[in-house]
Amino acid sequence: MRPEEEVTQAALRRAAALAARDEAALRLLMHPGLRWTTFRGEVLGYEEYIAGNTRGDLRWRSQRLSGVTVTVAGDAAVLTAAVTDEVTRDGQDLAFRLRLTLTWVRTPDG
What pLDDT, in 10s, does the model give residues 52-78? Predict the structure, then answer.
């Protein structure tokens, strides 16, 4: 599999893990040094990101990526896409369409 395809597949596994509230999968996919900027401009670390997406009042129904592009440079890659997030928060169903940028790094563990 080409590196671009590997990164795209990892991003799709991340989206599926969000919808499944699969903390173990997110821990494997996300780097411990994670700095995640939300669409509201909040910056979350690794533990905050995982807890907020698997244990909080936010429940993912789905995340769909379209127009995915991946640029690979050595062991790093940048994925950009349009993303449609469908979530439930406080009993209210919400949908967001945003631009997404993810930086992926190949480590000895994957």
Answer: 999 989 999 999 999 999 999 999 999
